[in-house]
Specification:
About 40% of the residues lie in helices and about 20% in strands. By secondary structure, it is an alpha+beta fold. The protein has 2 domains: about 35 residues; about 100 residues. Helix 2 runs antiparallel to helix 3. The longest helix is centred in the middle third of the chain and has 17 residues. The protein is elongated. The relative contact order is 0.10. Negatively regulates transcription of bacterial ribonucleotide reductase nrd genes and operons by binding to NrdR-boxes. This is Transcriptional repressor NrdR. It comes from Thermomicrobium roseum (strain ATCC 27502 / DSM 5159 / P-2). Its cofactor is Zn(2+).
């Protein structure tokens, strides 16, 4: 590993720690030549995936697009950025485990829905409404009932008092 300070090629590892549940490794290194310390990160290089859209178009898998969709679904919800990272890592891991170079966008959507369903019902409904293209409130009601939601009894107002 090349030292960022002096350019020497020899450095020794003085500490290693797993990050993100083993998804990456942080290493503290010390340059043999100048003695200065620096940090490097290692991560398995993701497999280059093409996403096959519903209309048949193909585009490269974009983790930023996935993260943005999750951010929008989870906006103003009590969910930490670490949870978003966990979902992104889960999606990437499951897609890579397929061992294929193309994945349907529907598979990505279903993995995200599964993870959101376990995490936050509101975020799940937000994501599902876009992903499943809810046409009307009836679609929304059906999805909410599938989550176990039941409508409240109608409340009548007594106008005589």
């Amino acid at each position: 590993m090349k030292c960022p300070y002096c350019g020497a090629r020899d450095a020794r590892v003085i500490d290693s720690r797993e990050l993100n549940g083993g998804e990456s490794i942080r290493r503290r290194r010390e340059c043999i030549a100048c003695g200065r310390r620096f940090t490097t990160y290692e991560r398995v290089e993701p497999i280059w995936l093409m996403v096959v859209k519903r209309d048949g178009r193909r585009e490269p898998f974009d983790v930023g697009k996935l993260r943005e969709g999750l951010r929008l679904a989870l906006k103003k919800r009590p969910v930490s950025p670490d949870e978003i990272d966990r979902i992104v890592a889960t999606v990437e891991r499951e897609l890579q485990s397929l061992g294929t170079s193309e994945v349907p966008s529907t598979l990505i959507g279903e993995i995200v829905l599964r993870e959101l369903k376990q995490l936050d019902d509101v975020a799940y409904i937000r994501f599902a409404s876009v992903y499943r293209r809810f046409a009307d409130l009836e679609d929304l009601r059906r999805e909410m009932e599938a989550l176990g939601w039941r409508p409240r009894a109608a409340v009548t107002v007594d106008e005589t008092s």
